[in-house]
Design goal:
The chain is an alpha/beta fold. The chain is 29% helix and 22% strand.
Length: 1539
C-alpha cells in the first residue's frame, strides 16, 4: 500500500492517521525538507487517486457514507477528533434565556434570498450553491467554503447516491468512535472550561430529529431546555447560575505569574514566557536572490510604447473579450481600438477639461477611475488613456453599490491624493444617485468631483497632428493602487512607471508569457493580480484576455472553466474561492477539457488554506485533462506587488513543496514539524520562487528588522525595482514600509538598497521555495502568542461548516480589553437554524479552538444571514464588522462570552491582612501625623437665639401656642398640578382640625394613650392635620404611602405589611382611599377582613376634646418612621418627643427658618427628612411651607420651579426623582420658561434629600441646565440621612459652598482614600453631603473592629446627636440583632460616648474653607451603603460605580443595577431600543466592567425600561431586583451567562 521508505519519513504514530493516509495515497513521491536543526517536515498526506488504489478504496468503504475524493489534509478530522474527546462528557453550559419574540424574529425575518450574497474577497467568506447534495465526515454539509475543506476533508458530494445518509450527525458519531479508540492525546490542551461537568458523565445519545418544537410558556418558566449536547437543564435562573458556577469551578489555564504595577496596588498580571516554549534554533537565514531578469531585445521601453506598437502593427488582434451575465461574449476590444480610444481619452483629459489657459488636469495629477466590475473594457481604455496623458489613474470601487462599507475611507484617499476628476462609464454615471436637479451629490467623506464619461461618442476627436508623448519608463508615478488596512483606513500605494514595466517583464519571464496567448481572468481588474496580469502584462505581450465578471460567477460558478475550454486558454487567473465554487457546482460535465491550460495562477496562494482548494480541484479535474504542475499559487501584496510565484513546468515528476507544521510552534513564530499534537497542524504549500531580479528575506515582525533564523517565521521583505514606492502623501508610514534595511544579528545591513515589507508572514524553505503562513493584518497576539485570523476561521468552519454557518461567512478579529488582545468570532447563521443549533455550534467551536489553537475565544457572536457589511466583491468587510461590534450596532442574534476562561491577567485577589488591633491603628495614625477622622456641627448649647419654641418640650404645645399667638398666620399652602392653591392651613385651622380628629380617635376609634395609628393619605394637608390629631389624642402616628389605584396588586401588600408590623390599632384615611381599601381589587391582593378599624376623616365630629393630651416624659414615643431601605429592608424607627423637637431646632438653626420665610417642598411626606420638612418644621419654626406633591410633576414638570419662582422662595427641597424629571422633561424648554418669567436667582439653597452617595452627574447637569434661569450652581446641594438618624447633614444658608473631591477608585476598593487630580485615570468625583447639622457629632469607625480610623481611610459613619432615633420598632422584639446600630461604643479611644451606626461607608476631609465660627470646615463624603457594597476578589466594590460605567457603555442603556449571587457579578440593564439591540449590550457591558473595575461579569440580564425597582426617593432596590431575578419574575429580553 505505502512504500516502506516513505512511511519512515512520516512520523505518524497512530493507526488512524496511517489508515487515512493509506486509503488515499497513490504513489506520489514524498517531499520533505530539513532546517538548521534536525527536524523534518513530514510528507504530504494525500496523493492523487490512481485507478488501482481507488478501486481498492471503494471496496473498503462501500457504505458510501464518506466521499474521500476531496481529501486534502487533516484539519477537519483534527477538529472532529478534538470534539470527540469532549463528546464523552456532558455539556453543561447554561443556555442563554431569550424572550420568545426575539427567537422568532431573528430566525426568519432576517432571511434574504441567497443570490445577493457573498464570495470571499480576501476576508475568507464563501459562497456555496444551495443545491449541492451533502455528505462528508459531518453528515449533511453543503461545504460552502474553500476553507472548510482546508479543513481537511469535509466535502461536497457530486453524486446523489450518497445523500441517503442518516439525517444528522451519524458520521460525526462514527468518526468520534474511531477517534476515541485511537486514543489521540493532545497533551498541550488545557482542561476546557466550556464543556463538561464531570469527567465520567454518561454520554447522552439523542435520537435523530428530536428537535421538535415545544410550545413553551413566555420566557420558559422552569421548563426543561436542552443545552449543548442534549442534556436537559432546568431553565430556572437559579439552576442555571448553579450550573455556571460549577462550570467555572473547573481548573482553567494557570494564571500568570508576575505582576506589573498599575499606578497603584492593583497589580495586573503580565505574561511570563513559557519556559517550555519552542525557540528558533536554526542558523541565520541568507537573503534569497531570484534569477536574473533576462533583458530581451524586443521588450518595449515602456508599456505605452508596447500599446502603440501592437495598436499600429496588429490592430485587429483581440485584446480583451468581456462577457454578459449569460456567459455570451459581450464585446471584443482589439489592440487597434484600445490604442485609438486611449489616445482620444488622453487628448480629452488634457485639453477638454477646464480652459486653455487653466486646464483642470495637468500631467502628474491624480484622476479617479470609477468603473463597475462588469465593464473591464472601458476601464482599460481609461487606464491607458491616463498613462498616455501622463496623469496618474487611481482605480476605485463604484460608490454606494450597497450600504457601502468603507466608501467614506476611499473618499478620504481621493481627498488626500488631490483628485478632482473622476472618469466613469455612461452606464455607471447613469446609475449613480442623483439629486432632484440631476447633480451627483457629494458622497460622505469624498472631495468635490467632476464626473467625466469616457465613452467614445462623448469625446472630441484629437486633431490629426496630435500625438501623445511616449517616452521610456522613468520614476514618475504610473498609477496608485488602493489598499484597505486592518483598521479600515484606505491607503494609496504609488507605483512608478519603471516599476510597472519591470513588474510586467518579471511576470512575463516567470510565467513564460508569449505573444497572442489567451488568458482567462476572474479577478478584480482594478487591483492586485487581476490588474497586473489582465490589464498590464497582457498588453506588453499582446495577449488576449477573457474577462469573467463577478456577476457571471455568481450565476454560473463554472463559467471560467467553460471559457478555458471554449477559448483553449493557456493561462487562467483565479482565487481559491473560484476553484471551490467550481467544485460545488460541478456535475460531471462531459465536455470539459482543461488540457490546454499550462498555468492556473492561484492569486491567494499566500492564504495557508488555499492548499486544500488546489488539492480538491486537482482531484476532481485531473480526469478532465488538468495536470498537477499547472497549478501555480502566487503570493502578492499591494506594497511589494508579486512577491513570489510558482513557475509552470513541463516536468510532472517534480511535485510541489509541502510542509506539515505544528500550529503550537507557529504561535511562537517557530517552524516545527508536527510531532506529538497530531490535531493541531497546518499543512502549507509553497508559493514558488522569488521573482526574477528580486532579493527576498524574512525579518522579525516587530522591533528592528533583524533577519530571522531558518526555522523562524517572519515578515517577508523584498528588494526589487518592481515594487510600490510609497503610501501617497504619508512619508512616515512610507519609511516604515518601503524603506526597510534588514540587519544581521551583528547589526550589519543586508544590502545597501532598501527592502519593502510585504505584510506576509512566512519563511524561505529549501531550494529557495517561499512559504506563506499568514498575513500581518490577520495577526492576533494573545498573551504573547501569535494566532492567525485565517487559521481560526478555518477551525470554526471545520466544526460543522455548512450545516450551520451561512455560506461560510465568518469574521475573526481581536479587540483589546484589559491590556491584551481578545479574540472575537462573528458568524452569519443560516436562517433555518434553531436556538439549540446555535448554542451547540458555539460550544463546539469553543472546544475546537481551545484544543487546536490552545487559545480562548473571548466572544462568539452569531448574526442573521446576510447582515455583515460586505466588500465590493461580496466578502466580509472586517474592519467595519469590528467597528459595529465595538459600538454595539452589530445586532447579533446569539452571543457567547467567555471572559472567565480567557482573561487570565486579572490582579491578584486582595489578601485580607491579619487583623491589626484598633489601638495600634490609632497609634499608627497619630505617629504618622494623621488626624483621627471625627467632626461635629455647631454646638446647640452655645447658640444664643430668641427661639420661643424652645420653651416647649412637645410639638403639640408649639402648635397650641401658635394658634393662640398668631392664629391667622399661614403655615401650609398646597399646590395642584396647575400651580394654583388647592388648600392652605393657618395655625388656628390646623389646631381646630387636629382637635376634631383627636375626638374622633377617642370616641369612634376607642383608642388609648400610646396606641398606634396608621395614616394612609395622599401628600397634602389632611396628612398634617391627622398627624397633630394623633398627638392631641396621645396616639402614635405612622405615615403610610397609600396604594396606587392603577397598581393595587403590588402596592397594597406594602401598606398592609406596614400596618401589621407597626401594630396599628386603627387606620385613618380619606373617603376615596377608604373605598379603595375595601374594593374587589384590594380583596384580590390582600385579606381585607384583616384590616384594623378604618376611620374616614372626611366626616369629622363637630366637637372639641375635653382636654389635649400632654406626654409625661420627653423620651416617650412621638411617632414611628417606616421606610424601605435601599437594601429592601422595611425598617421602622422610634422617634421620641425630645428627638423630634431637637431635630426641628437643628434644621431651624441650619436653614435660618423664621415665620417670615417661605420654603418650597417637593418631596414625599412619608418618612425621613421628607416627612419632617412636610409635617413638622413649619409648626416648630413658623415659616410657610409651599407643598408640591411630586406626583403632580408627571403632568406638569415645570410646576416645582414655577412655584419657587412665583413665591420668590429662597430655600427649596426636592428628591433625586424630582430633579431627574425636571432635567429630562424641561431640558428643551428653558427658553420658553424664561419667556414665562421663570426666575431662580433668589434661590439660596436647593437641597436634594437623599440617603445615598450624592449623584454628582445629576446635580451638575441640573445646575448647568437652569443656570440661564438665574440658578446659582452653588445653591444646589444634597443632604444625608439614614435610619438611625434621619438627617445628619444638610447644606444650610451660611456654611461654605459644598466641595467636590476626586478620589482614586482603586484605592477605595481597598478601603483607602487617596485624593487625585480631576480627570486622572480611575478618578471618582465625590460631592460633600451637605454640612453637618448643629448638635451632631460624627466619627469614622472600622465596621469590623469598631476602632476609630484616620482621615485617609474609608469606614462606617457613626453619629451621636440629640435627634438620633431611639431604636428599631419591630413586631417580633428581636432587636438584639440590631441593638448595636443605636448604641455602639468604640473599642478604643473615646469608649464612653454612645454612637449610632449609620450602615454607610464614608470619610471625612478637613477642607481649606472656614465655618461660620471661624473653624476649618470638615466635609463628610458618603460613598455607599455597607449592606450593598460587594466583596469581590477580596476588594470592596460599590454598585453605583459599576453601574455608572455600564450606563456609559452604550446609548441604549437607560438604567443599570448590579448585585452578586454566589460570588458571580450580575448586571441588569434596561434597554431603551428595539429588542434586537439587546445582545449588542452583552460584550460592551463585559468589556467596560473588565477595563474599569478588573471584574469579570458573570451574568448579563437585559430587561425592559422600568423593571429595576426604585423607591420613593429614587433609589434602586437592588435586593428586590435580585429576588425577582432568582424567582424568574423579570421577564428579561435576554440573559447571557458568561463563561
Amino acid at each position: 500500500m505505502l512504500q516502506a521508505g516513505n512511511i519512515g519519513v512520516c512520523d505518524i504514530r497512530d493507526a488512524a492517521v496511517r489508515e487515512r493516509v493509506a486509503s488515499t495515497a497513490g504513489n506520489r513521491p514524498l517531499f520533505y525538507f530539513r532546517f538548521g536543526v534536525d527536524q523534518a517536515l513530514p510528507p504530504e498526506r494525500r496523493a492523487p487517486v490512481t485507478p488501482a488504489s481507488s478501486s481498492r478504496y471503494h471496496r473498503r468503504r462501500s457504505s458510501g457514507s464518506r466521499d474521500e475524493r476531496y481529501r486534502s489534509d487533516v484539519h477537519t478530522e483534527a477538529v472532529q477528533a478534538a470534539l470527540a474527546k469532549h463528546k464523552e462528557r456532558k455539556m453543561a453550559v447554561p443556555m442563554p434565556s431569550k424572550r420568545r419574540s426575539l427567537v422568532v424574529q431573528t430566525s426568519m425575518d432576517a432571511y434574504t434570498p441567497p443570490d445577493t450574497s457573498s464570495g470571499s474577497e480576501d476576508e475568507g467568506s464563501v459562497q456555496g450553491d444551495s443545491q449541492g447534495t451533502p455528505t462528508s465526515s459531518q453528515g449533511s454539509i453543503n461545504m460552502e467554503h474553500w476553507i472548510s475543506q482546508a479543513i481537511h476533508g469535509s466535502t461536497t458530494s457530486t453524486t446523489s447516491s450518497s445523500s441517503t445518509q442518516s439525517g444528522g450527525s451519524g458520521a460525526a458519531h462514527r468518526l468520534a468512535d474511531v477517534m476515541a479508540q485511537t486514543h489521540i492525546e493532545n497533551h498541550s490542551a488545557p482542561p476546557d472550561v466550556t464543556t463538561y461537568t464531570s469527567e465520567h458523565a454518561v454520554p447522552v445519545e439523542r435520537p435523530q430529529g428530536s428537535t421538535t418544537s415545544r410550545t413553551a410558556p413566555k420566557y420558559g418558566n422552569a421548563e426543561l431546555m436542552e443545552t449543548g449536547d442534549g442534556v436537559p437543564v432546568s431553565s430556572r435562573v437559579s439552576a442555571k447560575i448553579q450550573q455556571l458556577v460549577n462550570t467555572l469551578k473547573r481548573p482553567k489555564r494557570p494564571p500568570l505569574r508576575e505582576f506589573f504595577v498599575d499606578d497603584f496596588e492593583e497589580l495586573l498580571e503580565v505574561q511570563q514566557p513559557d519556559p517550555n516554549q519552542p525557540k528558533p534554533e536554526g542558523a541565520q537565514m541568507l537573503a534569497m536572490r531570484g534569477e536574473q531578469l533576462g533583458v530581451v531585445t524586443n521588450w518595449p521601453p515602456s508599456l505605452e510604447a508596447a500599446l502603440q506598437r501592437w495598436g499600429t502593427i496588429s490592430p485587429k488582434a483581440p485584446c480583451l473579450t468581456t462577457m454578459d451575465t449569460n456567459g455570451k461574449p459581450l464585446y471584443i476590444l482589439t489592440y487597434g481600438k484600445l490604442w485609438t480610444r486611449s489616445m482620444k481619452v488622453a487628448y480629452n483629459i488634457l485639453h477638454k477639461l477646464g480652459t486653455k489657459q487653466e486646464p483642470m488636469v495637468r500631467p502628474g495629477d491624480r484622476v479617479a477611475l470609477v468603473f463597475p466590475n462588469n465593464d473591464p473594457a472601458a476601464s482599460m481604455v481609461a487606464f491607458y488613456g491616463c498613462l498616455l496623458a501622463e496623469v496618474v489613474p487611481v482605480p476605485i470601487e463604484v460608490p454606494l453599490t450597497r450600504k457601502d462599507a468603507g466608501s467614506q475611507q476611499i473618499g478620504f484617499l481621493l481627498g488626500s491624493c488631490g483628485v478632482t476628476v473622476a472618469l466613469t462609464s455612461d452606464a455607471c454615471h447613469k446609475g449613480l444617485p442623483k439629486s432632484p436637479t440631476g447633480e451627483i451629490p457629494q458622497f460622505k467623506g469624498w472631495p468635490k468631483l467632476l464626473w467625466f464619461v469616457t465613452e467614445s461618442k462623448h469625446l472630441s476627436k484629437p486633431p490629426r497632428d496630435w500625438f501623445p508623448h511616449i517616452k521610456d519608463a522613468n520614476n514618475d508615478t504610473a498609477y496608485i493602487e488602493y489598499k484597505t488596512c486592518k483598521d479600515g483606513s484606505v491607503l494609496g500605494v504609488t507605483v512608478t512607471r519603471i516599476a510597472l514595466l519591470t513588474h510586467c517583464q518579471a511576470l512575463t519571464q516567470a510565467c513564460g508569457y508569449t505573444e497572442a496567448e489567451t488568458i482567462v481572468n476572474v479577478l478584480d481588474f482594478k487591483k492586485d493580480v487581476g490588474l497586473w496580469h489582465g490589464i498590464l502584462t497582457s498588453v506588453m505581450n499582446m495577449m488576449h484576455v477573457i474577462s469573467i465578471p463577478y456577476s457571471l460567477m455568481k450565476v454560473n460558478p463554472l463559467s471560467w472553466i467553460q471559457k478555458v475550454c471554449q477559448y483553449k486558454a493557456k493561462v487562467a487567473c483565479v482565487k481559491s474561492r473560484d476553484m471551490h465554487w467550481a467544485l460545488v457546482a460541478h456535475r460531471d460535465q462531459r465536455d470539459i477539457n482543461l488540457s490546454s491550460l499550462r498555468m492556473l495562477i492561484v492569486a491567494d496562494g499566500a492564504n495557508p488554506w488555499s492548499i486544500s482548494s488546489c488539492d480538491a480541484f486537482l482531484n476532481v479535474f485531473q480526469s478532465k485533462g488538468l495536470r498537477q504542475e499547472v497549478i501555480c499559487p502566487c503570493a502578492s501584496s499591494p506594497e511589494a506587488l508579486t512577491v513570489a510565484i510558482r513557475r509552470p513546468t513541463d516536468d510532472s515528476n517534480q511535485p510541489p513543496g509541502r510542509g506539515v507544521l505544528s500550529m503550537h510552534g507557529l504561535t511562537y513564530g517557530v517552524i516545527r514539524v508536527d510531532s506529538e499534537e497530531k490535531l493541531s497542524v497546518l499543512t502549507v504549500q509553497d508559493v514558488g520562487l522569488v521573482m526574477p531580479g528580486a532579493i527576498m528575506c524574512s525579518v522579525k515582525p516587530d522591533g528592528i528588522p533583524q533577519l530571522c533564523r531558518t526555522d523562524e517565521v517572519g515578515e517577508l521583505c523584498v528588494c526589487a525595482v518592481a515594487t510600490g514606492t510609497s503610501y501617497y502623501g504619508l512619508s512616515g508610514m512610507t519609511k516604515n514600509t518601503f524603506e526597510v534595511f534588514p540587519v544581521t544579528s551583528s547589526g550589519a545591513p543586508v544590502s545597501e538598497y532598501p527592502f519593502v515589507r510585504t505584510g506576509l508572514l512566512g519563511f524561505v524553505g529549501p531550494g529557495g521555495l517561499v512559504f506563506a503562513v499568514g498575513k500581518m493584518d490577520g495577526l492576533m497576539v494573545v498573551s504573547g502568542r501569535r494566532h492567525n485570523a485565517d487559521d481560526i476561521v478555518a477551525t470554526a468552519l471545520a466544526v460543522e461548516p455548512m450545516k450551520f454557518v451561512y455560506r461560510g461567512r465568518i469574521a475573526v478579529f481581536s479587540v483589546t480589553v484589559l491590556h491584551d488582545e481578545r479574540i472575537v468570532i462573528v458568524a452569519e447563521q443560516r436562517p433555518d437554524s434553531t436556538e439549540e443549533d446555535s448554542f451547540q455550534w458555539m460550544s463546539r467551536v469553543l472546544q475546537a479552538i481551545d484544543s487546536i489553537h490552545q487559545v480562548g475565544v473571548y466572544c462568539l457572536a452569531l448574526v442573521p444571514a446576510n447582515t455583515l457589511p460586505k466588500t465590493p466583491l461580496g466578502g466580509i468587510h472586517l474592519s467595519e464588522t469590528k467597528q459595529l461590534f465595538l459600538e454595539g450596532s452589530l445586532h447579533p442574534c446569539n452571543v457567547l462570552m467567555c471572559p472567565h476562561t480567557c482573561v487570565t491577567n486579572l490582579p491578584k485577589p486582595r489578601q485580607k491582612q491579619p487583623e491589626i488591633g484598633p489601638a495600634s491603628v490609632m497609634v499608627g495614625n497619630l505617629v504618622s501625623g494623621k488626624r483621627i477622622a471625627q467632626a461635629s456641627g455647631r454646638d446647640l448649647g452655645q447658640i444664643e437665639d430668641n427661639d420661643q419654641a424652645r420653651k416647649f418640650l412637645f410639638l403639640s404645645e408649639v402648635l397650641q401656642w401658635r394658634a393662640q399667638t398668631t392664629p391667622d398666620h399661614v403655615l401650609y399652602t398646597l399646590l395642584n398640578c396647575r400651580g394654583t392653591i388647592a388648600n392652605s392651613l393657618t395655625c388656628v385651622q390646623l389646631h381646630k382640625r387636629a382637635e376634631k380628629i383627636a375626638v374622633m380617635l377617642m370616641e369612634r376609634g376607642h383608642l388609648q394613650d400610646g396606641d398606634h395609628v396608621a395614616l394612609v393619605y395622599p401628600p397634602g394637608v389632611d396628612l398634617i392635620a391627622a398627624f397633630y390629631g394623633c398627638l392631641y389624642a396621645g396616639c402614635v402616628p405612622i405615615t403610610v404611602r397609600p396604594p396606587h389605584p392603577q397598581n393595587i396588586a403590588t402596592t397594597l401588600p406594602t401598606v398592609k405589611m406596614i400596618v401589621e408590623v407597626s401594630r396599628s390599632a386603627c387606620l385613618m384615611t380619606t373617603q376615596l382611599i377608604c373605598k379603595l381599601l375595601r374594593s374587589r381589587e384590594a380583596a384580590a391582593a390582600v385579606d381585607v377582613r384583616a384590616w384594623p378599624p378604618i376611620l374616614d376623616t372626611d366626616d369629622l365630629p363637630k366637637k372639641r376634646p375635653a382636654q389635649i393630651y400632654k406626654p409625661s416624659n420627653p423620651d416617650m414615643l412621638a411617632y414611628l418612621d417606616f421606610s424601605v431601605s435601599t437594601t429592601g429592608m422595611l425598617a421602622g424607627v422610634k422617634m421620641s418627643h425630645a428627638a423630634t423637637s431637637a431635630f426641628c431646632r437643628s434644621i431651624k438653626l441650619q436653614c435660618e427658618l423664621y415665620p417670615s420665610r417661605e420654603v418650597a417642598i417637593c418631596l414625599d411626606p412619608y418618612c425621613g427628612l421628607g416627612f419632617v420638612l412636610w409635617c413638622l418644621c413649619s409648626v416648630y419654626s413658623g415659616h410657610q411651607s409651599i407643598l408640591i406633591p411630586p406626583a403632580e410633576l408627571e403632568t406638569n414638570p415645570a410646576l416645582w420651579l414655577l412655584a419657587v419662582s412665583q413665591y420668590k422662595v429662597r430655600d427649596t427641597f426636592c428628591s433625586y426623582s424630582v430633579m431627574e424629571l425636571c432635567t429630562k422633561g424641561l431640558g428643551s424648554q428653558t427658553e420658553s420658561l424664561k419667556a414665562r418669567g421663570l426666575d431662580l436667582s433668589r434661590v439660596r439653597t436647593c437641597v436634594v434629600v437623599a440617603e445615598e452617595r450624592p449623584r454628582i452627574a445629576l446635580t451638575q447637569s441640573f445646575s448647568k441646565l437652569f443656570k440661564d434661569l438665574g440658578l446659582h450652581p452653588r445653591a444646589v446641594s444634597t443632604s444625608f440621612g439614614c435610619r438611625v438618624n434621619l438627617a445628619i447633614c444638610l447644606q444650610g444658608t451660611s456654611g461654605p459652598d459644598p466641595t467636590t473631591v476626586y478620589v482614586d477608585m482603586r484605592a477605595l476598593r481597598h478601603d483607602r482614600v487617596r485624593l487625585v487630580e480631576r480627570g486622572s485615570p480611575h478618578s471618582l468625583p465625590l460631592m460633600e453631603s451637605g454640612k453637618i447639622l448643629p448638635g451632631v457629632r460624627i466619627i469614622i469607625a472600622n465596621p469590623e473592629t469598631k476602632g476609630p480610623l484616620g482621615d485617609s481611610h474609608l469606614g462606617e459613619i457613626w453619629v451621636h446627636s440629640a435627634h438620633n432615633a431611639s431604636g428599631y420598632f419591630t413586631i417580633y422584639g428581636d432587636e438584639s440583632l440590631q441593638s448595636d446600630h443605636f448604641n455602639s461604643r468604640l473599642s478604643f479611644g473615646d469608649t464612653q460616648t454612645v454612637w449610632a451606626r449609620t450602615g454607610y461607608l464614608g470619610f471625612l476631609r478637613r477642607t481649606e474653607l472656614t465655618d461660620a465660627n471661624g473653624e476649618r470646615h470638615d466635609a463628610l463624603y458618603v460613598v455607599g451603603a455597607l449592606d450593598e457594597a460587594m466583596e469581590l476578589r477580596g476588594m470592596r466594590y460599590h454598585p453605583i460605580d459599576i453601574e455608572t460605567s455600564v450606563i456609559r457603555a452604550h446609548k441604549s442603556v437607560t438604567e443599570c443595577a448590579v448585585f452578586t449571587w454566589t460570588n458571580l457579578l450580575v448586571v441588569v440593564v434596561e434597554l431603551d431600543g428595539s429588542e434586537q439591540e439587546a445582545l449588542d449590550l452583552v460584550p460592551l457591558v463585559t468589556n467596560v466592567v473588565l477595563e474599569e473595575h478588573y471584574l469579570v461579569v458573570g451574568v448579563v440580564v437585559v430587561v425592559d425600561i422600568g423593571v429595576i425597582p426604585i423607591n420613593s426617593r429614587g433609589e434602586k432596590q437592588r435586593m428586590h431586583l435580585r429576588d425577582g431575578f432568582l424567582a424568574d419574575q423579570l421577564d428579561p429580553i435576554y440573559v447571557a451567562y458568561n463563561m
